[in-house]
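Homework help thread (please don't just give me the answer)

Our assignment gives two proteins as sequence + structure token strings and asks us to describe the second one. The first is just a warm-up. Here they are:
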Amino acid sequence: QSLFYSPRIKKAKSSMAEPKTKYDRQLRIWGEQGQTALEKSSICLLNCGPTGSETLKNLVLGGVGSITVVDGSKVEIGDLGNNYFVDESSVGESKAKTVCAFLQELNDAVKAKFIEEYPEALIDSNPSFFSQFTLVVATQLVEDSMVKLDRICREANVMLIFARSYGLTGFVRISVKEHAVIESKPDHFLDDLRLNDPWPELKSFAETYDLDTPDPVVHKHTPYVIILIKIAEEWAKNHNGNLPSTRQEKREFKDLLKSKMIASDEDNYKEAIEASFKLFAPRGISPSIQQIINDSCAEVNSNSTDFWVLVAALKEFIANEGGGEAPLEGSIPDMTSSTELYVNLQKIYQAKAEADFLVMEQRVKKILKKIGRDPDSISKATIKSFCKNARKVKICRYRLIEDEYNSPVQLELQKYLTDEDYRNFCLSIGNPSLCSMFKPSSGAGAASLGRVRDGQSALMCIAVGFYILLRAVDRFAANYNSFPGQLEGEMDEEISRLKTTAVTLLGDLGCNGSTLTEDLINEMCRYGGAELLAVASFIGGIASQEVIKVSRENSSSCKACLDNIYKCNIEVIFLIAANHKTICPYVWDFHIQWH
């Protein structure tokens, strides 16, 4: 959908099309299960300015089940320049009503309603209101309201996403008790081939092939899986049953593979050499999966989620039928091979994966019955998906906003606020003005916290400064009833007030001695609390992506989920001021993840 798409258009014929046709492209990405979850979602949007409207636009086009827009303000002349979902005829009208009507035109399958009330008032007067939704998207809220809403949604077990654009910067923050990730889709992950621990059927299949065959066609079309299994067996016989472990042994193993080649054009043996690292991988499950199955939530009861029931079944499988391994995924990568041999090998893997699935299915049903739930309440498709991704499952848990604000990770903040090497990076990219944004503390204490090693770390220094100031402007607004720079003719005084507020905040965070200079503070005052459409569209796009991910309940939200997930995560997306042109290309897609 184009950024400049106008909602005031005649409804397309496709709006009444069948869902499979209407949502064809996104179904290819997250499948029918993901789309069904999205269509069952009930989303509440707080504040429908450009950030909120752009976020909800993407969700409406994606086919979310229902939306409720909450905003007590009226459409003003200024809104016409930064919100596509209002027009001249709506000036003076309810903003919630106007935006809701325009959004409804984009997708008539989405149920839409509006409430003319200020979100801050609703948070204070009717906290139970939010319990009816599956997810709340809160935009442009200040710190005090964020803390209150976060506490309300946690108690009601409602997912919450904060989004805010402020001048040329902004953030997206996810806050949920727990987010289970089944389809984590890591960028790099070893194929589940079990080369160093083949099950009986795979081992028997490999034994039927002779690597010393005189037939050159057969020799050059034997899959590398078979080659590695047989060479590994030969190695183990000569090394007391052990596989290569040291660097020297791994080099010798590769030399052994090379010695089996009878022609220089045997791609299958070249593939075997390149893939030999898969044979050297440790057996069993990873530490992250061990941590999950040892979690107290794996001791399930009638209130446990489907995810933890599946984890409980996985724990039993690993301890029994799996022999220390998770269920087999059942797929093999492309490789040089004859078609017949490749298909036969593929069937071996698929048969093993199906057998593991059947065992897991029975264990899931047994556990469900034991805790008093319907044994068929978890579908076969869900169990099969879990088995396929069992080695990659993740669990995300987030701190309360209040905990984040009251108990920050002081070492991390100090690290990025006091690092002198950051200045060298600024100079290296030809932008010395950025060097003065932070005043590093002197002394050995700052040096002991570590150094900026690359450009990304330096960008984190910049972004942390904006994070501090985004909190500082909220304190400023609470004290002076306006954001810095919002009132004309008082810029010098506003800058002085914001600087004092920022220093006080840094002290409260335990970062005494760290200060932000006039350059960065001037930038925040220059913004004047403005909500710019280009930035709002970018922030709204990120926010809507995260809504879709957490609504699906089986995909990674924010790349931080690929790390150890038992700690707090703050996902912040920053855009740097336009006058810092040399830094902007680096920062546009820059993410910070704190744990």
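The one we have to describe:
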Amino acid sequence: PALSSASPCTPCLPPGTEKTPDYWNEGARRRLELALALQPVTRRAKNIILFMGDGMGLPTVSAARIYQGQLAGGSGEDSVLAMETFPHVALAKVSWAVPGVVPVLSTAPNPHPTGLQTYTIDRQVPDSAGTGTAYLCGVKSNAKTLGLSGAAVYGKCHTTFGNEVDSILHRARLAGKSVGIVTTTRVQHASPGATYAHSVSRSWYADANMPKEALRDGCKDIAYQLVHNTDINVILGGGRMYMMPKETPDPEYPSDPAQNGIRKDGLNLITEWLSSKEVPELGQRGAVPRHHRVGMSYEHPGCPCWQGAQYVWDKKGLDAVDDDSVSHLMGLFEPKDMKYELNRNTSTDPSIVDMTEKAIRILRRNPNGFFLFVEDEIDHGHHSGRAKQALMETIMLDQAVARAGELTDPSDTLTVVTADHSHVFSFGGNTPRGNSIFGLAPKKAKDKRAYTSILYGNGPGYSIRDGGRPAASLPAAEEKDYRQQAAVPLETETHGGEDVAVLAKGPMAHLFHGVQEQHYIAHILAYAACLEPYAAEPACSTSRRASHSPRCSSQPLLTLLALCMASYLAGG
């Protein structure tokens, strides 16, 4: 059971309703009944979707809830985000715990809240690379490193080798599932990078970003690893320039040299990726017709399913992709990161909802299931001190969560929503009910000047004029690029160190409980989907038989036989 979806509730109530005890007692009784009826789904998960709100701390979630409700015409406070309807909640720690104490993986039903601890081995307040390694690979590591254990040293190429750790995405692909990444950042960025890369520097996007000694010692850039490390079925986000040779014009901005490709090795990783999915031309022994080009997507004895690979770079191209004709799709929609939702050109750039839907429609065709990682750049809005940008990104991530729920079955799909870390973002000021989340506090500060409800602990919003801070004012504070005031001057606002939430529904979601270390997430995902190191669990063999039994019809086998005969005759 889940709570109702978001709606502007307050205006729908008769005047004075909230002032009666019956209103609150009845609402609480209904929620109690839902809680009593809640039963854990203890079967194993066929599919896993991990939504990552980069920088989505609890204050961000709360403020986004209010903003969403106000956009819908309500006061906002009683709005409900789609992610908030998930029945199981936990907290993840982002700061240090007792060394050597490992969270116990209990399979007993537990509906109690959970928290995650997000620190890294060397940082009290983490970055997105170290946290990505934790929640995707299952181990804590050092800041700024990707897919490596804590034995690897930031920036030291030679410490890479032998210290690699594999992500849940990689393990899911080895188990025969389809896998995908969706992000509004560049696909080589820290969070998505942790799904496939092993790098001692999160900044080694392309070979042009690497020091000569690292290249000499055999380290590969993150874009190269995207194409070569794991066979990823769906890749959607930004990051074109890191995939193309130096001075190659960008297809969307051909007259802007700043958007050109930057690779020094001359590789075009987009064409290389496409070529790696091709099969021989008709006329060669064992070939299949060109319109079936691409590698075997769903690798199971007796069930070869040949599909196509496709690359797109704008919304028109993405919309034109036939979900049933491709098993591999790469969509790179900007040279670097994608635009904020409030700045997005809706006719040329897909939204995170568009990309999530396309990914699910392609991935879910695999009878063995899929793993999908979805990230939104909430973080970038906060770093720039622009709260409106960050909160709209949060709302868009939540809309993607809602759409994913419509496209999947909660009985076989484990969906998890969490954050890698928080930010020094807050809102308060004794504001009245219905006050715009971007509005002013009702009373002026001690300096006799107005201030906004939303404030940052540090960042570019710090300003001193005429011996004091400038007074906040409307409507300026409501503008999308308005920078809320900050207490300490910094070029970019910083991450926060408090625990972040984990919200889950579907098979084994009840294992998210209490306050946990962040790397616990990866272990629950692996356990739920029978991936290593939990693939040999007794329940997994039963789960595999159930999911694999109907996987092949006679039609694909007959089609393959016909194609083989045609290719043999064509080859002489």
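TA reply:
I won't write it for you, but here's a hint about the kind of observation we're looking for: The radius of gyration is 25 Å.
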